[in-house]
Fold this protein.
Amino acid sequence: MPMMLFRTFTILLVALVTGLAFAHVLESPAKMQYEAAMYIALQKSLYVQWGPPNVGGLIEPVAIISTALLAFFGRNTIRSLWLPLGALSALLIGFPVVFFVLVAPANGVFMATTLSSIPVNWKVLRANWELGHAIRFGLQFTALSLLVLLSALDAKKDIADTQRNG
């Protein structure tokens, strides 16, 4: 029972992280049409709560650690090891790799930008930021799917065991 609760906790954390990235994906078509001043104003105001030390910036590392612990403590079967390891790999590619290659550099420039000093390459930075979050969403959704699959397969096994043992 404790492992089932921990797995549920992990799934919920990964779902929250996935939801943050999905919100970025949903906003992207509109934001790609904005002029520099509007886009940068949004970046500097709308997303403040999404990064550290605020809750948005804390959920992702906790979700990654929780997924790693799930793989470690659930390693008694092949599926209980490989599905969480697959999820962990997807999460680790999304953060730190994709985040620090595509998203963080744009964040740094946009946060330092004033409306009177918009960088010439702001459209490239915007494209990288939006692409980075789309890639992260795909990776996080994959991780979430693997964890839900693990939970479903374990539930199916538990039902079969209960029926067999009467």
The chain has a mean pLDDT of 93. DSSP finds five helices and no strands in the chain. The two ends are 19 Å apart (CA to CA).
